[in-house]
UniProtKB/TrEMBL annotation:
Transmembrane segments: none annotated. InterPro entries: His_Pase_superF_clade-1, His_PPase_superfam. This is Phosphoglycerate mutase. It comes from Planotetraspora kaengkrachanensis. SUPFAM superfamilies: Phosphoglycerate mutase-like. It comes from the Bacteria. CDD domains: HP_PGM_like.
Length: 151
């Protein structure tokens, strides 16, 4: 059994003229990311994979997990199929993976993997999904939604 924790980055700032990839987090976003980390930490993730955008990078760092963080460029503006490919490349030794990304891709990934109709996946939200097979066999409909959290 593998556990996937899909995290949408925390609330980001909107600054005129600032490139989308360079947007950081608001004070609320920073608080929400730390709170999410407190809830995720007991699941003992072995790896965090994050988009390299500033807001996702900062969210991943503020989770404060005792796991290495890999920054994967393909997560930025990714579709669910792209995110499934990231999952499939995960080291088989990793039992619990945290994926930090952007909407609509992360929300659609949760819907695709679980077949569950979650109508909202706001900034700072996360979903915990159990997958019964190795990462390389991750396919739509294979997961079971265990829990969601909205800040």
């Amino acid at each position: 059994m593998k556990t996937l924790i899909v995290v949408r980055h925390a609330k980001a700032v909107h600054v005129a003229g600032l490139a989308d990839r360079e947007r950081g987090l608001t004070a609320r976003g920073e608080r929400n990311a730390r709170e999410a980390g407190d809830l995720i930490r007991p699941l003992e993730p072995g790896l965090v994979v994050s988009s390299p955008a500033v807001r996702t990078r900062r969210t991943a760092e503020l989770l404060g997990l005792d796991a290495p963080i890999d920054f994967e460029g393909s997560i930025y503006e990714a579709y669910p199929d792209d995110l499934l490919e990231v999952l499939r490349r995960t080291d088989p030794e990793v039992d619990t993976l945290v994926l930090v990304g952007h909407n609509p891709g992360v929300h659609e990934l949760v819907l695709s993997l679980t077949g569950t109709d979650i109508d909202r996946f706001p900034t700072g939200a996360f979903a915990v999904i159990e997958l019964p097979a190795p990462w390389e066999e991750a396919v739509p409909g294979a997961g079971r939604l265990v829990r969601t959290h909205h800040p």
